[in-house]
Every structure is written in C-alpha cells, then in structure tokens.
Amino acid sequence: MKAIVYKSTGSWYTVKDDSGKVYNARLKGVFKIDDITSTNPLAVGDKVDIEMENEAENSVVITKIYDRKNYINRQSPRVKHQHHIIAANLDQSFMVATLRDPKTSQGFIDRFLVASEMYHVPPVIIFNKADLYKKKETELFNHWEEIYKAVGYKIILASVKENRGISEIRELLKDKVTLISGHSGVGKSSLLNVLLPELNIRTQDVSDWSGKGMHTTTFAEMYDVPDGGKIIDTPGMREFGLVDISRQELSHYFLEMRERLNNCQFNNCLHINEPGCAIKEAMAEGEIAEDRYVSYYNILKSINEQNY
Ligand SMILES: Nc1nc2c(ncn2[C@@H]2O[C@H](COP(=O)(O)OP(=O)(O)OP(=O)(O)O)[C@@H](O)[C@H]2O)c(=O)[nH]1
Ligand SMILES: [Mg+2]
Ligand SMILES: [Zn+2]
User: Fold this and answer.
1) Ligand 1 lined by 100 (C-beta under 6 Å)
2) 256 and 175 in a common domain
3) Are strands 71-75 and 230-233 parallel, antiparallel or unpaired?
4) Closest-lying ligand to the alpha carbon of 235?
5) Quick one: which atom of ligand 1 is closest to the CA of 96?
6) What is the rounded CA–CA span in Å between residue 54 and residue 251?
7) Are residues 228 and 129 in the same domain?
C-alpha cells in the first residue's frame, strides 16, 4: 500500500495512505537513500510502501522508499559533516523572514536561496510582522525587495496579525507541496494557522504550534490544504548550513552571477580579485547588489574554512 510521510519524530513516522487514513509507521531494516549520509533516512514528504503490522495499534512498517523528486538538505547543527533532510518532494518553499522580533539577516536569506537553487525548489520570501515595521524597517524592506525582485525572486510583505498578504500566499499554495522555513519566532506556525484555521480542530495537537511563542515547533509536519496542496511546517532554525557545495559552483546559485559567469576572463574565476572579472565589473556598475556580493563572499569564506 502506498503512503506519504506526514511527520517524522526520529524513530516513528506518521504516514497517510491514498484514502486519507493515518498510521503510525516505523522503518523495517536499514535503508540507504540517494547515497546521502543523513541523520534521518526518511523525511516528511517521502513516498513509501507500507504493510500492516498491528491493526489494533494502527501501526505499519515501511517496506520501500520511493526515489525523491528533490529534497532540502542542511548541515546538522550539532554534528558537522552530517546532513539533515528537512523535507522531500517539494514544489516550492517559503522563507518566512522578519525585520523585527527577531530580525532575519540577509546572510540567512541568501544561504536559503542558494540551497533552493541547488536543490531546484523554487523559493518565495515572505516578510512577516509588517505591522511592527517602522520607518527603518520599511526602508530596509524596500531596499531588499528591490534587490531580490531584480534577481527574479518573489517577495511578499505580510502580517499574520493584520491579515495582510495572506490571500496572495493562499493563492500560491494551490495544488502544490510547500515547505515553510525560517528562524524560530518569525510566525511560521501562526501563518499556517491563518491559512488553515480548521487545523486547530483537526490535529488535536496543542503542544506543537500554539503560536504563542511558548512552545515552538519541534518536528517538521505536513498538513493538507483543503482546496488541494500540502504545506509543511518546520522547526525554526538558527543558521542554514549548506552542504555538498564547492567554492567553484557557489556563484552558479546566485542567479544574477550565473548569467554573467561566461564573461569572466578565467573560467575558474572565484570573483575575488582576479583580472577581467565580470562579476566585480557588474557590481561596480550597480548591476549586482553589493549586499548580495557580500553574502556570496561570506559563504565562499565559510566553504574555505570547511576545506571543501
Ligand atoms: N506582531 C506580529 N506578531 C506575529 C505575527 N505573526 C506571528 N506573530 C507572533 O510571533 C510569535 C511566534 O510565532 P510562531 O508562529 O510560533 O513562530 P514560528 O516561526 O512557528 O516559531 P518556531 O516554531 O519556534 O520555529 C508569536 O507570539 C506570534 O503571535 C505578525 O504578523 N505580527
Ligand atoms: Mg512553529
Ligand atoms: Zn569572476
């Protein structure tokens, strides 16, 4: 029987079959997927085969894991060199960012965008808590909006509290599998709660997403969108550790750099101080934002330090 993983707590999984029936599932034996060494072999969004194990307890075993269309992977915050798959088989991902309480750094956003390009998951950046933005934050938002729109990313200004930007976000969800990520406290679960108000009744889970900042989301979990589509809430992350990336390929994941790479004099140009660098030239002419270049440079340095 086929099913999809809706929640993973480590050793136990919640899966749902085609008819919408939910089971507790565990993995049978040892699986190695996609040749990745990860802390979790199975992630939310994975497609699996299940067999009934104990009808009374509604428990099943997972006997097969299907190939992934894609996945988002990040470096385990605890163990370097280990990866953690956040979710699999995604159509898009939302980065929920805030300019106040807490403030998301541009470096964090850019790392997330690099990962989105690496794993071929189209990103949307949602700036939440717009109700809290004063002049300073509004100017910063306008500045970033200009930068990211020029690169080709979709930016939405939202306030869950004041119901701003919500209908636009709801439109984007239709018939898609969407991952929501971002720092802790930016309002991911609150957003989910306004998008799916009936969730409150359906999940009967009071501890996970009270939205009061007292309990934070601890496991990734997928929810069905009534009009079609699925949405995955994730625990907030402090940093976004990129994995499997070489210094040479990094600029391919900055879209405004990718389209200019062929114009660099050297084909192994890292765009630092090589002669005839098209990226530095484009920056001097204001075609590439300095802020984005700074992110590029900082990520490049961090790859250096890991000795890739
Ligand atoms: N002012 C304001 N507060 C908001 C808004 N959206 C969410 N909050 C508040 O921000 C706090 C954190 O919201 P959560 O939804 O729990 O944040 P989260 O991103 O799910 O956090 P983690 O589960 O820890 O990753 C709560 O107190 C929310 O009420 C908003 O648009 N404006
Ligand atoms: Mg949450
Ligand atoms: Zn260059």
Assistant:
1) no
2) no
3) unpaired
4) 1
5) 19
6) 51
7) yes
